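Hi R.,

Here's the chain you asked about this morning:
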Amino acid sequence: MSTTTSTPTATSGNTLSAKWAATRRQSQRVWALSKPYFSSEHKWQARGLLLAIVALNLGMVYMNVLFNDWNKLFYDSLQNKDATVFWEQLGRFTYLAFALIVIAVYKFYLTQLLDIRWRAWMTTHYLQRWLKDQAFYRFELSRFQPGSAEGQSVSTPDNPDQRIQEDIGQFTGLTLSLSMGLLNSVVTLGSFVGILWTLSGGFTFSFQGSEYIIPGFMVWMALIYSLVGSVLTHYIGRPQIALNFQQQKVEADFRHRMVRVREYSESIALDRGEAVEHAQLELRFGRVLANYLALIGAQKRLIWFTSFFGQAAVVFPFLVAAPRFFSGAIQMGELMQISNAFGEVQGALSWFVDNYRSLATWRATTDRLTGFEGAFQALVPVATNDTAPADTAVRASDLTVSLPNGAVLLAHMQLQATAGDAVLLTGPSGSGKSTLFRTLAGIWPFASGKVERGEDTMFLPQRPYFPDGPLRDALAYPQAATSYPDQDLKQALVDAMLPQLVDQLDRVDAWSQKLSGGEQQRLAFARVVLKKPRWVFADEATSALDEAAEATLYQRLRALVEARQGGMVSIAHRPGVAAFHQRHWALEPQAAGNEALFKLAEKPA
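And here is the predicted structure, written out as tokens:
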């Protein structure tokens, strides 16, 4: 029979080791987020500002040392009723205070300047990465993959907009304030611990007939006082880290749902979906309130302790030093100097206690940004997309297309469309027509193989995007409207059967909401007429139009690409569209047991 005994020392050592490892990982995360800016093209400005802020923080500590010396002289003059020294010290206070004010003002100004420059650089950096290679689109595709809590992929960040807009601002501001505060505390401790050690003298006591002296008694008392406070603060305030992280998430979820209501206001109104949206908004706001109540409960418990801790620190040095004062061993000035030095040492040692709430927020923000950074690095690469030969609209070889859940739609597919081709792609609903369309466009990440696409290509989705603003910007998007003369803009609207908009080029509006579905699709066609691409890919681009309008627009589209010696590929269901295409690709279901759910077959036009 064997027995197992616990080893408290080993357990304690393992706990300390785990905490040290966690601290090291947090430091590595902060360094990984901070280093790019201080190594960027703005590195000399950034480093110069940082050095200036460090110098001002050191200057602030030096001024506090001078004020500590001033306390002794000033209060001694009061006790001794020495008017000469009293007025001298008031004069000295004037220039000391002026110097302190100047240092404080420029410390604040330069810190804020570095904060906003750092935030601006990080925001620009992450905006570029978010918009590059359709990362914003791929994040949304991955949000609700199965296999993780709440339907989210482990590597997919929630609410990227909040991480860029809010988390970066909190990270830069808190990193600067906390790091400078820690530096200030370390330097203050080094500056005042010697003063307090000298002033406090030794504490003498008898034990079992022997007399003992503890040198620098006040220093040890400050250390014990602060250590106990830091340990208790950590255990009382630890829940705030997870609660702060969750609060940022639920706030962003609530805000995102309201934005969705605004974006789809017409559809919701037509469906009379107000009650459902209200219930969903109430549900999300309920999560905000529930988490916030838990957070303020945790903060209340911490404030109970830190308030008591801070108030006790005011009178603690007087209680310890009072016997020496009343015995005449020290004067009032020295008592005040001891109190001030103890406050500085205890404050430096209690930096963790005083900043725990900020540390909890900073930790949560750092974790969110680290997760955001990790999501960029974990992005799934898209299928190889190269430029095709001049006479080729699109060519794919060994192309396999899958769904986010891993199901294979098409396997090892070959296809090609060349100049003069007008190809119609059909298939049953859910066969992956739009997914193949996205793959050919080079934005679908769940595909492998090689895709070559001709230059000067435009894609027309079923639901086009129009930015809010002047109509001319919506028409020219994504190019600048200034690239096209007004006459070309107006003619494109006429050719796309939108003559009523010709005189509204400078009208500012939310065009995605103000235009009907058919008008939006015609405005997308106006873009094609304006830009005259050689190759056009259209995905149900006329589904909201009547058959007569559809035929007119396809006739003009066919004439446009033929004039450019190009071609087009269309996804459509209506038989009338087939008349404008001489080739037919069909997606056909395959029997169970095949590698893919569908196959691509060439059919007679």
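One quick note: Residues 384-603 form a domain with the Rossmann fold fold (CATH 3.40.50.300).

Cheers,
M.
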